[in-house]
């Protein structure tokens, strides 16, 4: 029995939410300097050349910091729109590595690349098969994309995969805890809660292409830090943002290097 059924597309207004807020695009960027097929990230030569360009954006001689900053952007463009579609619209795109390209232009300021898909076909769960369908969507996105890219980057630049996965995890936490939920219907809120609980507590490691569920692994307790009104989930790894900052001790609010 099939776990999903094919649907043509989202409504225009639904797609617009993903395009405006979650970095999905159907537009081809004219200047291809910072554009790249997802699959090129597995090619050492092409990936190295691309990361050197990214390093120029962050103005640092560090080999690790630009990769970590890139991983944050890449994780977001891969997961954000698809998780929103999963929980809000009960639909999912194919975010496997072979189905996307990075679309981007850098004009100074914040660098915010987008994802463009080759095949825009969407699926939704067959009757009574949402759990199985959800696993399909998640496995394509995590094991079929991010895990493969993180393994390649870790080998290429000698950056710990734990940093790359925690960069991914912090966005999942932020999306479900701080971003998603706005203007959600009762049904959507229920799916948001169920999907987030599943990702953090029950999703098996193989969906992520790893030996452990990284979202569970980095889901530490929140603590009170000076200058912040609400408790913060402190990272277990440093993302090296401070290396790319004008102030060399400008740590993130959740950085484990902070002393308070």
TrEMBL record:
Q: What is this protein called?
A: Aerobactin siderophore biosynthesis IucA/IucC-like C-terminal domain-containing protein
Q: Which GO terms describe its molecular function?
A: 2 iron, 2 sulfur cluster binding; catalytic activity
Q: Which InterPro entries match?
A: IucA/IucC-like_C
- Which residue numbers delimit the Aerobactin siderophore biosynthesis IucA/IucC-like C-terminal domain? 68-219
Pfam families given in the database record: FhuF
């Amino acid at each position: 029995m099939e776990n999903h059924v094919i649907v043509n597309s989202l409504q225009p207004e639904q797609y617009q939410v993903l395009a405006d807020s979650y970095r999905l695009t159907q537009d081809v960027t004219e200047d291809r300097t910072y554009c790249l097929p997802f699959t090129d990230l597995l090619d050492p030569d092409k990936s190295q050349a691309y990361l050197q360009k990214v390093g120029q954006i962050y103005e640092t001689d560090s080999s690790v910091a630009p990769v970590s900053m890139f991983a944050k952007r890449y994780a977001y463009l891969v997961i954000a729109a698809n998780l929103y579609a999963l929980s809000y619209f009960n639909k999912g795109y194919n975010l496997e590595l072979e189905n996307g390209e990075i679309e981007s232009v850098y004009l100074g300021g914040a660098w915010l690349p987008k994802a463009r898909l080759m095949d825009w076909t969407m699926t939704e769960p067959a009757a009574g098969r949402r759990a199985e369908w959800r696993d399909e969507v998640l496995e394509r996105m995590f094991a079929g994309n991010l895990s493969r890219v993180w393994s390649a980057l870790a080998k290429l630049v000698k950056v710990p995969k734990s940093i790359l996965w925690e960069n991914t995890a912090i966005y999942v936490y932020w999306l479900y805890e701080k971003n998603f939920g706005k203007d959600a219907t009762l049904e959507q809120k229920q799916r948001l809660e169920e999907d987030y609980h599943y990702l953090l507590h029950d999703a098996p490691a193989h969906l992520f292409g790893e030996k452990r569920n990284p979202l569970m692994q980095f889901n530490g307790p929140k603590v009170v830090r000076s200058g912040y009104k609400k408790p913060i989930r402190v990272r277990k790894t440093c993302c090296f943002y401070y290396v790319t900052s004008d102030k060399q001790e400008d740590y993130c609010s959740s950085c484990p290097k902070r002393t308070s």
